[in-house]
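I'll show one example:
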Amino acid sequence: MDGHTFRKVLHFFVRYQPLALVASLVLLTAPLRAASDDRQVYAGTVGAAQVVVELEGSGDNVTGRYFYRKYRLDIGLSGRWTGDRLLLEARSSGDQLNLHRAGAELAGSLTTKAGRTLPVRLSPVAAPAPLAAGLSADMADLSPYERHQLAGLSLVPGSIRQDGPRALRDWREPVSGITLFRIESGYPAPVLARINAALERQQWERVSQWFGCEGFGGQSGMDVSEARAPYLSDDFVSYAWFASWSCAGTAHPDFGTQGVTFDARTGRELQLEDLLYFGNPPAPQPDTPAFFDYRGDIFAPRIVSLLGQLYPNEMQPADGEAAEDQCDYADTSVWDFPSWYLTGQGLYLGAYFARAQRPCDEPDWSVIPWQHLTWHKGDDTVPHRSAVPTSTLHFGQREFTRDNIAGVALAFDDRNFPVLDIALRPEVAQHLEAESIRLLNTDVAITVGDKSISSARLVEPITEGRIRISGRFSLTEVQDMARQIICTMHLGAEQYDSFALSDRPVCESPAAPEAQGAIP
């Protein structure tokens, strides 16, 4: 990995990961997953209260956490072995533990900040606790400590509510109050099962995060953790999870949004690149050097260009503000790893700024309308089945069928060079315009089937529903381009200017595409 890519990776983890699941907040204060074999989990008592303790050592230094089963909230620990004594201090409460080994067990005392001393007896946990009621089997990778923390909890169903033709029901975990919907009806049963299983897993992850974010005064450090803006359609299920927190051990309070989106036809959870992708397919795999390069070098600059076209005023700094107070939405680095989710208007993208400018985060206007997305399901530019095999015309990532073509015609530019105009029908012209804005100032390939027609730099949006292929072409070259389009797409005689292009039929018969005439 070169230094350029490394900087992008570092940028991703510093700026994006703390937002992604909010689980990384807990990583700042205590280990979450059983990723290390030297973590030891104990269960026992402090006085009469039952506790679970997780400890991890590096030499004489020891860190860890514990919770009272009655409350389940994490309390961070740090300390060291001094001879045969393990001295630990609880971060948020100030309690002191003085322990020693008693065979495989740990024994000793806990002294509260108020000076009260209680006996401590801890035994190693030999096996993880059963999964919490209703917790999916795919959460079996929870650490033994987390399993104990969630053991005995359950989700309580709420009443059913309607969202258009779909029925939703909220499920609530009573201790944390974490609530998330399930879909009762409105999609095929296999899709419902897949999406609801993912929603259940996500809810338990957030319950675990709530207990793992250590606060002060016996409270969780998670101030808000809730689902917002659910959007359900025939094609998508999407929602935003907003959280604000002040976990003990972190530098400052913070907040963030993570969107979750599913394909409502299959139940698959989608990535941003499934909905909006500016590169050559296939999209790079997440968390790879190619992915980080794409997000920083291609995605973010294109987003700034697209938002500049859609929201020119909002992308400009406010008049009269000092430079350090301005929200510079033209800075590509605030868009490379945005929060995102779907709304009725399209794809919402939330910018992410450095700490001093966090009020600039997630502006309410930065929605990419549906027609600019590269997700094709449901629009009328998707190839239609026909008794006669036809090929589609590709402009960037948009596909246009024979039925979308209004006309192919020969013309001449102001330098008297021949050009080829491909006019689209009005109902699909908006898709061409949206794609041209998305691809502005890039090299765009125009192909029909597997045949390349032209490739040139796009310097301005296409607003009239007409693709013009121009250059220093000869008349024969332009006629050859027209022939490829007309014959490959099997256009009807009413769809091209036969007089200007040729005085003979271009193709003998659409039913026999192999028998093609030539343009002289």
The chain has ten helices and 24 strands.
